Amino acid sequence: MDAKTGFFYLFALVMLFSAFRVITARNPVHAVLFLMLAFSQAAGVWLLLKAEFLAIVLVLVYLGAVMVLFLFVVMMLDIHIDSLRQGFWRHFPLALLIGGVVTLEMAMVLFGGFRTSDAPVVPETVTNAAGQVVQYSNAKALGTLLYTKYLYPVEIAAVLLLIAMVTAIALTLRERKDNKKVAESRQVRVRAADRVEIVKIAPTRAPLPVEPAPEAPAQEAKK
């Protein structure tokens, strides 16, 4: 067994263990951390398959943004685990059925075997448009394929993501009846004299008479 095969078994073993711990961990924070570990091991497997660009994107996007966001959301939310586990046995038969179907499909794929003869061969060097022999770049080949053959699907996906982002912002900034909202233009034009207003209010009843202080006895005054 060479070093590449050893690293593959190491990454695969850690990834399977972390994926199992994601669904069995009782603490949601621990589940998110195990999911981050699984993504990191998947990035290592992609590096072994010479898919450097996909591995870097997985680390930057999922580990650097999405999983960190999940971690902060889970840590800030007050999640009651006991309330979430109340309907476990009620949905257990459906979950068992879906898990059995997924396991059967994976078994059919694994027992069927993989045709290694159809795997693409990655060349060490290629010839560019100028006729020069340069080293093959996986990221450059992927970018060329995305922006030539799959240009329209990439543009449609970008437009859909932009619409989703604008919609999320619009839903966040919409006016709701159950909260108070002040116009920003009025906040900018506010003056110090407008913040406090002194209003004179007439008394509703006459003030009580002031009782004079009792006089001291004459003997104490002489002392």
Give a verbal description of the structure.
By secondary structure, the chain is mainly alpha-helical. It has a domain at 1-79: NADH-ubiquinone/plastoquinone oxidoreductase chain 6, subunit NuoJ (Four Helix Bundle (Hemerythrin (Met), subunit A)). 62% of the residues lie in helices and 3% in strands. The chain contains nine helices and two strands, in the order H-H-H-H-H-E-E-H-H-H-H. It has a two-stranded antiparallel sheet with strand order 1-2. The longest helix has 25 residues, at 52-76. The model has no long low-confidence stretch (mean pLDDT 79).
CATH superfamily of one domain: NADH-ubiquinone/plastoquinone oxidoreductase chain 6, subunit NuoJ
User: For the record, what CATH class of one domain applies?
Assistant: Mainly Alpha
Give the overall shape: elongated
- Give the termini separation: 115 Å
Quickly list its features.
two-stranded antiparallel sheet; 2 strands; Four Helix Bundle (Hemerythrin (Met), subunit A); mainly alpha; 223 residues
Layout of helices and strands, plus pairs?
Layout (H helix, E strand, L loop, with lengths): L2 H22 L3 H21 L3 H25 L4 H4 L3 H25 L12 E3 L5 E3 L2 H9 L4 H23 L10 H5 L29 H5 L1
Antiparallel strand pairs: 1-2
Helix pairs in contact: 1-2, 2-3
In short:
The chain is mainly α and 223 residues long. It is built from nine helices and two strands, in the order αααααββαααα. It has a two-stranded antiparallel ribbon.
